[in-house]
Amino acid sequence: MSQTTVEPERGKLDRFSRAAASYVDDRTKIGVLVKEFGRKIFPDHWSFMLGEIALFSFITILITGVFLTLFFDPSMAHVEYEGSYLPLKGMEMSAAMASTLDISFDIRGGLLIRQVHHWAALLFNAAIGLHILRVFFTGAFRKPREINWIIGFLLFVLALVAGFTGYSLPDDLLSGNGLRIIDGFIKALPFVGVWISYLLFGGEFPGDDLVGRFYSLHILVVPAVILLLIGIHLVLVFLHKHTQYPGPGKTEKNIVGQPILPVYAAKAGGFFFIVSGFVFLLGGIFQINPVWNYGPYDPSPISAGTQPDWYMGWTDGFLRLVPSHWEFVLWGYTFSMNLLVVYIVAGIFLGLVALYPFIEAWITGDKREHHLLDRPRKAATRTGIGAAGVMFYAVAWAAASSDLIATHFHLSLEGVTIFLQILLFVGPVFSFIIAKRIALALQKKDREIVLHGSESGYIVRLEGGEYVEVHNPIDDGLRWKLLSYHSDYEPWMLRPNAKGKIGFWRRTRAALSRFYFEDRIEPVSQSELDAARHDHKPELNTGH
Amino acid sequence: MAKELENPESADHGSALIPADPIKDPGLPPHHTRVTDIHPSKERHASRVVATWFWISMIMSIFATVAYFVWPIKHGDLGTVRLSTTLLGVAVGLALLSIGLGAAYWAKHLMVDTELVDERHPTSSDEETREIAAEYMHLGNVESGFTRRKLIRNSLIGALALSPLPAVVMLRDLAPADDPNVLLKQTMWKQGERLARDPSGTPIKASDVTLGSAFHVIPQSLNKLHGAEMLNEKAKAIVLLMRLKPEDLKELPERKGWSYDGIVAYSKVCTHVGCPVALYEQQTHHLLCPCHQSTFDVTEHCKVIFGPAARPLPQLPIAIDSEGYLVAQSDFLEPVGPSFWERER
What we know:
The complex is a heterodimer of chains A (544) and B (345).
Chain A: H1 2-12, H2 15-28, H3 31-37, E1 41-42, H4 49-71, E2 78-80, E3 92-94, H5 95-105, H6 110-137, H7 146-168, H8 173-187, H9 193-200, H10 210-240, E4 254-259, H11 260-285, H12 291-294, H13 313-321, E5 328-330, E6 333-335, H14 337-364, H15 380-399, H16 402-408, H17 413-452, E7 454-461, E8 467-472, H18 476-483, H19 504-517, H20 526-534
Antiparallel strand pairs in A: 1-4, 2-3, 5-6, 7-8
Helix pairs in contact in A: 4-6, 4-11, 5-6, 6-7, 6-11, 7-10, 7-14, 8-9, 13-15, 15-17, 16-17
Chain B: H1 35-38, H2 40-70, H3 78-109, E1 116-119, H4 127-144, H5 150-162, H6 165-169, H7 180-183, E2 195-197, E3 214-219, H8 227-237, E4 239-243, E5 263-267, E6 279-281, E7 286-288, E8 295-297, E9 303-306, E10 315-316, E11 318-320, E12 326-328
Antiparallel strand pairs in B: 2-3, 3-4, 4-5, 5-10, 6-7, 7-8, 8-9, 11-12
Helix pairs in contact in B: 2-3
């Protein structure tokens, strides 16, 4: 029976697809997966590409990294450099540095792959950062995606670790000074600091063990964990199905878009080549990390304007912003508050980022699943908080260049530093207020447009001498998008519980809820719209 | 209007507002057909564009392969490194990019682009599955007696908790047996050790140090060491030597004998996180660390006048020997470099 119904269907398939599918399926039952995922729908939006950029730059890093391992010698044994870069010829350096120079000057394509690897790492970190911001500002972290937010957060941290361990491998002057800073930073920790540093470096700084140790972290442990987390991240994306932006016909219960086969296979598959091709162009044309200019590591020399790679900048900026003399001795033990405060501040910042989805869920008490994204303006307080976070990060990041800002703009270093110290705390407050007010103003504007249509620019004088602007009606699809009912919340009202008490948590939650949702713009209802249409201002061609 | 906080968990949607009188969702907008769907000539054109991208990719891959051999690196000639890198990078980049652009163009202009709608289902498994899962967990518990047999369970937890301990201990031999707290408190400097130029190691006479000059200094015997041993010692022993007018120095009475005729020597390792404090401003007698801009005033025993450092740079007591060379009177009298927990012990 079923044979006869299936046959004509299968007859429509081309012979190759059928043969290939059945060969593999006979041996793996993969048809179940293809049936499940082959025509899975993905929504379309440019901002969904940010995560893909991160993924594809990571794959580029893996491929170029494998090539580099074939030539790199992760050893700090001291050798005399005998390669073809004349200014360093005959100099004593570690085998790591010498092989990095060989990769750069004596192996065809070596410099290219090194630079592609480095550029891709910079892009990887940048794309992760932007992807996190997209997810934050659209509320994509809400139930059921909180776990995926945590995984993404861990990936953000691991990308820093991957970047820093790789940056340290060439054992050049710049990376050695970076390690020197890490060494001093670790030593400040109470009880364990000196021991962690001592064990990490295999003795005193700099020793001759670190490159080998970072190498196994950098090429094995960290990428393996990153791959594992990316795997889970993507499985969860498939499981939840992708979020979508609000629009006509899009609901919490559906997903509108195009299928993996063939559209997204082509778009995402092609996008891998666009990202990797772009990074190869960068690596071919623009120099990055010219270690031969810095020379091998030596604890004594250093150059002004020393900078880490951009993604480590915010941590270095915190180090610079601490005021002088923050250290005290108690019971004979040294409390290096000038460094410990950086652990505390960066820890709180990262902790808030990691836990934000749970905090917001507690405040709203909303236990539903959310698949429709918020337009950032509709979640004004969250948008303000995000802007404050961005400002905080940005000030710390800018502080890592305080000396360059001072020299380029002919300002005093002290002035720039003090300004940034103040801005670190004041800036986020202003960012919050401004972003929230802009978001609310945009909501107001949307409400106007929903009620009265869009401004046409035509001013008409009525018979009574009154001037009015003509508004053009908007289409139903745009109106629906502007309404975004799904993003509307109101504050909890504080009432005592059954025992007539108002507990601390209840009070806190109500206060936070007020902070979030007190300023809100009521979305337009059908009766409001009808009323507005009824006593509507004249339209250009009605002429009364 | 505001919702009560009374037992918020019972309200599934929390403080979200469910509109009472909403405007209706107009539903999916009509599908827009593309020119390539209507005009066969446009479709043919688009497919030619896609094929052209793929052809460009092929040409670029072949070009990159040829360029690898035709423009090799001549050892010692940096121009050939640049040429090889640029040609390979641009060719491989364009080869990859063209595949991507071709695929994207194909998807955008030729592949069927009607919007499809999938239904979403709750992420959680259905009630029956949840029941069965809970049942299995329950059976696992009952049949093993995991919660009932407390002695076994707690012993297991104890065993598991202790099992990583050897792994932690085994990390001890990552570093030699010495106590790092002792090592951090001593450097190569000792009584009579000559101050020498970094990196040549030639000793410095007091008469070489003219007013206003600054020297980067290492112990003379440092260069007898090699490799990591040398770097480890150098990382602690580097010193900056400066000569100021004696009247410009505001010296503490107990340190009067540590300088020689306006010549002072201070550790070059920043007390913040250990960068070399390498920038000397001759006019102001300030030392600046280029990493985090800690600034030290040489005239007042290198006290911190700006930046995140907390402590002054340690001073190396110096004198001259019988031949007029500058020598150390002793090691530093306090640990150099960044602070650590047991620094004062």
